[in-house]
Write a structure and sequence with these properties.
- This protein is of the alpha/beta class.
- It contains six helices and 18 strands.
- It folds into two domains: about 130 residues, Jelly Rolls; about 210 residues, 3-Layer(aba) Sandwich (Collagenase (Catalytic Domain)), CATH 3.40.390.
- The protein is about 15% helix and about 25% strand.
- It has a five-stranded antiparallel beta sheet, with no helix packed on it. Strands 12-11-14-17-16 form a five-stranded mixed beta sheet.
- It is globular.
- The two termini are about 35 Å apart.
Length: about 375
């Protein structure tokens, strides 16, 4: 069974077109940039010819990463990022095409009404220089046709950080209704958080967890297009934390261990602004946690939030599609992949017998770098 359940949607071909702005020729910046190591600025823009929306990112030269979250009432995807000179730094066609067997960011794919990109993704990607950078998004309808004159709200966040070898990720742990009243589940989650902390420590990352009760139905329903089912979860967090929801099942099945709201996910409110965890699937057939299943739950949390910070599986279960990192091998069979990558945190499925699971807490240097470049890892 797959532990991480983010499936790349069907690739929709986009064509390079002329640039555009809103009806007045540019974006409307609605809030001033906040101050601090994490800055946040909100604005909006109307799509122009060929459904294009150009989101400006103002950089001083001190930043090490930025995140852009774009939201609309229609489908959005990232087409390109342009540097301060208007030169393309990355383009969807280099990654989301039949020629590529690697994944860099899910922002290139059309799967919902929001699109999130964190840049740089890897430490080998182009560093940030001072000036105005641009994230180029495209809006399409349900038939994948370009949509003009559509309002796109955006949030630009930037991070300054003088030490990319360590950081803190704030986690908002949301309990579905009634689950936080169960002592057995509380104990299992406490042990799982300890395992998560242990795994991420190898990447220099610490988690700071705040627990929150909610009236969410424990039978979690996750839809990338429909609004989030509960405003408390969607809007109750800050602009610097990651929401993790503990439920009984996800979309009515015990086949899902967990699901990430994106690769990467956002720090602000969108329809996908959360990671979802099924405690029941992680507890096994009898629904009662054994010690190894507590560890599995912790690794599932670390794995899914790893997706949220930008990590893909080093190899997909088809054994022919990979992440874009140099230090994760590209294997081509289940036996070779399980042998060479089975201990990695981001391996696509747990390696379990009826009475035990193999530890999967390994992280490579390149994976650790991706996590530390996430704009919310401060």
């Amino acid at each position: 069974m797959h532990r991480a359940l983010f499936a790349l949607p069907v690739l929709i071909a986009l064509t390079a077109c002329t640039s555009g702005g809103d009806k007045d020729g540019g974006p409307n910046v609605e809030t001033a940039m906040t101050e601090g190591p994490l800055t946040t600025q909100r604005g909006s823009i109307v799509t122009a010819q060929n459904g294009r929306a150009l989101v400006p990112i103002e950089l001083t030269g001190d930043e090490v990463s930025f995140m852009v979250t774009a939201k609309s009432d229609t489908y959005l995807s990232l087409e390109a990022i342009l540097d301060e000179n208007g030169e393309q730094v990355v383009n969807w066609k280099d990654w989301a095409s039949n020629k590529s067997t690697q994944s860099l960011t899910s922002a290139f794919y059309i799967y919902g009404y929001d699109s999130i990109v964190n840049w740089p993704v890897r430490d080998v990607d182009r560093a940030l220089n001072a000036g105005t950078w641009t994230a180029q998004f495209t809006a399409t309808d349900e038939n994948y046709r370009y949509v003009n004159d559509v309002l796109v709200d955006f949030v630009v966040q930037t991070k300054t950080d003088d030490n990319l070898d360590e950081g803190v990720v704030k986690v908002r742990l949301v309990w579905a209704e009634g689950l936080d009243n169960r002592n057995d589940l509380q104990q299992a989650v406490e042990g799982a958080l300890s395992r998560w902390s242990e795994v991420w420590a190898a990447a220099g990352l610490t988690i700071e967890v705040t627990e929150v009760s909610s009236d969410l139905d424990p039978e979690l329903t996750v839809d990338s297009v429909a609004p989030f089912p509960n405003d408390e979860v969607d809007y109750g967090g800050a602009d610097d934390d990651v929401t993790v929801v503990i439920g009984e099942t996800i979309n009515g099945t015990r086949g899902l261990f967990g699901q990430s709201g994106g690769i990467p996910g956002t720090l602000v409110s969108t329809a996908n602004a959360a990671v979802y965890i099924s405690w029941l699937t992680n507890a096994g057939r009898d629904g009662e946690f054994q010690e190894y299943e507590v560890l599995l739950l912790g690794e599932t949390m670390a794995h899914e939030v790893g997706h949220y910070l930008g990590l893909f599986h080093p190899v997909e279960a088809s054994y022919d599609y990979y992440d874009a990192l140099e230090d994760t091998v590209e294997c081509t069979s289940w036996s070779k992949c399980e042998s060479e990558l089975g201990e990695n945190l981001m391996f696509p499925y747990p390696l379990c017998s009826l009475s035990d699971c193999e530890p999967q807490g390994g992280l490579t240097g390149d994976q650790s770098a991706v996590m530390n470049l996430y704009t919310g890892a401060l």
